[in-house]
Amino acid sequence: MSTRRYSVAAPHPGAAQSLVSAGRRHSRFVALTKRLLPALAVGLLLLVVAWPRVESMRQALRLSIIPHLDLSGASDLQMVQARYTGVDRENRPFVVTAAVARQKPNLDDLVTLEHPKGDLTTTGGSRIELSADTGFYQPQSQLLDLFGNVALHQDKGNEFHSASAHVDMAAGTAEGDDPITGQGPFGSIVAQGFRFLDRGATDIFTGHATLEIVRREQRAP
Predict the structure, then answer these.
(1) Which phi and psi (to 5°) does residue 65 adopt?
(2) Of all residues in the chain, what percent are helix, strand and coil, respectively (each to 5)?
(3) In 10 A of CB 128, how many CB atoms?
(4) Which residues contact 85 (CB under 8 A, 6 or more apart)?
């Protein structure tokens, strides 16, 4: 009877060491995971609780950095210290200025004005100045409409006040149907309307008018 012999090879020393190292790494990973998972869960819970406050702080910071924009007038063309120059039909210069001028893109010949002023120079070199709170100006037709505290000053000493006036800068005329008051070296006048022609060379007062004339000897020297 023959006897079979079996031999078992001993494990390689390097392979055994690798198995031991892998086991240790797995143990460390399991231990680290057991510590990290509870910490991560607590962190997520704190983030959920604190997120509304973080979002409100972020929104407040954004609003403090970005200036508020009024988009209602974003489509308007705006110019500060606006100035329009031209000459009338007799080649006499005039200037229209305003603190602020606004123009709608679809209205090329209509400009709204804040604190407008109109300056005209006569052939003889005299100046006439008009001013108001607000107004409209049409650069192409050279028409100026004034509203609110309208004042007309002539450098010869006359001063007139009304609520509105329509000025044709090209023709050098101004007119209005609101009551007007005026004073100057001639005296004072109150009327229901007015027509100023040829840049103030001819003044016509319409409606019921009251004129008080100052005698020449009473005028200031």
Answers:
(1) -90, -45
(2) 30, 40, 30
(3) 23
(4) 93, 94, 95, 96
- What is the rounded CA–CA span in Å between residue 182 and residue 200? 13
Q: Is 25 exposed, middle or buried (0-12, 13-18, 19+ CB in 10 A)?
A: exposed
What is residue 91's predicted lDDT score, i.e. its pLDDT?
83
| CB atoms closer than 10 angstroms to residue 61 | 10
Q: Which CATH number fits domain 74-218: 3.40.50.720, 3.40.50.800, 3.40.190.10, 2.60.450.10?
A: 2.60.450.10
Mean pLDDT of 119-141: 86
* 100 phi/psi in degrees, rounded to 5: -145, 135
Structural domain boundaries of the chain? 13-67, 74-218
Instruction: Quote the CA–CA distance of 151 and 162 in Å, as a whole number.
Output: 7
At 122 the pLDDT is 73
Q: 171 burial class (0-12, 13-18, 19+ CB within 10 angstroms)?
A: middle
Distances from the Cα of 110 to the Cα of 55, 84, 113, 173, angstroms: 46, 13, 10, 19
| Residue in 80, 82, 95, 196 with CA at minimum distance from that of residue 142 | 95
pLDDT band (50, 70, 90) for residue 93: confident
What average pLDDT does this structure show over 203-213? Answer: 90
